[in-house]
Amino acid sequence: MGISAFYHDSAAAIIRNGEIIAAAQEERFTRKKHDPHFPFNAINYCLSEAFIEPEDISLVIFYDNIILTFDRVIQNFQAKGRDAADQFRKALEVKFGTKWWVKDYVRKALGQTFPAQSIMFCNHHMSHAASAFYPSPFEDAAILTVDGVGEWQTTTISHGKGNRITMLKEINYPHSLGLLYSAFTFYCGFKINSGEYKLMGLAPYGEPIYADLIRKELIDIKEDGSFRLNMKYFTFMESNKTIGKDFEELFGQPARESESKITRHTQDVAASIQAVTEDIMVRLARTAKRLTGAANLCLAGGVALNCVANGKIAREKIFDNIWIQPAAGDAGCALGAALFGWYGHLDQSRIAPTKGDSQKGSYLGPSYSADEIQAFLDRNAYPYKKYDDLKVRNRFIAEAMANGSVVGYFHGRMEFGPRSLGARSIIGDARNPNMQSKMNLKIKFRESFRPFAPAVMEEDAGEYFDLDGVSPYMLIVAPVKEERRKAVDNGREQEDMIEIVNRERSDIPAVTHVDYSARVQTVSSQSKADFYGVIDAFKHLTGSSVIVNTSFNVRGEPIVCSPKEAYICFMRTDMDILVLENYLLIKNEQPDLGEKSNWKTQYSLD
Question: Can you list the domains of the chain with their CATH numbers?
């Protein structure tokens, strides 16, 4: 069993003889987004999914080396002295209040008789590297891990071969691409560790006019992708803030207030740091190729969730193949720690899959049987229709989407990682020019500029996108085909972002971003037959094999896990239809939720 906890996105994972059995984030059970607490619920789920008792676990691996992390805290304090006193106290609370007692937490979860000697620790970036390489389809691969910070490491290049991972190159704290990107996330008015997606989505609206300024003043980038930050502009070593006055003065304006109007300045700043990030990632990938000679690349770490940079690496043709861990952030470290325990510590043999990867589509979370769902619906007297034939159900869903309906789709095991991949999804017609704004403002309750992803039948992806290979985990951005585009003037004089968003840029406007890009999910009949069947039915009806796919949640909440959570989200938004496995519910047939009907207001953008 692998465990990550006490920073953000706590999770647990379990493997048996090298096979991934289950993995889930704690947030899905507690309903606290990015929950950092010890994952008692996720551990219980993993045990139940594996049909085992705690005494059947041979080894528990924590994703972080607490001694090395504490060493960084002490040396950081020594370097900054009294200026870092507040941060030092906070760090001590975490290290001594929680992480120092990991073994006690494990034994609380698994029972006091669980042997302490069966609990070990894995370095943070090794957990990332293991999560990227071991589930991949490669026997031999370069591994690039980039995040904020582990113990000391912020960036590593490794070589994976057989069952072994050898680290070759590293960059250490405080020099961190992840922390640099987070500094700009804060400056642009978004929340660190959750708003980086927003910064990436905002970037195409601007021009990278500050990119040279960033390279000159903030970060010294070498040809091989290594870098050093100019710490004059950053305050994360001595405080809980990332930037100070010098940073704000450099860009001529104070940090944007959260929820305030997004100006052209903010758009240009976002575009600039995105361009610099892509440049560094491409250089690092080239160095990884030079150091390993491998034909394949594996990616993990929080920065590997930057699917625009991933797409840039793919289009540069540095490697023949790329595989990215779908839970690339710290949640995925739980899986990486478990896999490292099996392959790296116990030295078990590894044979890469002959077809696809061993991540199982990342459908590693809980599922609910038809009996459980029907019992929930009947107990609450919620009107529904049951479909014994999925083809009939899929045809109904396709017709509803074609007529403008938004569908909550709940089927099979929940996804592990931040992306919904057709198990806990909200779906709609990608051809509908009003779908993006409708989903953002009336269903997701989030900023209107944020793009949605297309889910496309794997064999048809090349008809819509300039994409080499497959993208099953929605982690690569690719251009929409030139012949599908429509000429649009995104003149810099235009300040109304909703007006810009609503312009039709292609014949699949709901998933075409302002720069004609799309974060593609390719869907195969082997990996997700039920979801593939929905898209196939839509294709037979409309001729289009692309639909909108976004996560089944609203702003500020985790993706839904249970049928109850799915129903509540369905009722408190403007979704039209809810699919719970073979059961289908129509919004206007449902009873009123009563006093809870004002729920939307707490997630408004006002």
Answer: 370-603 (3.90.870.20)
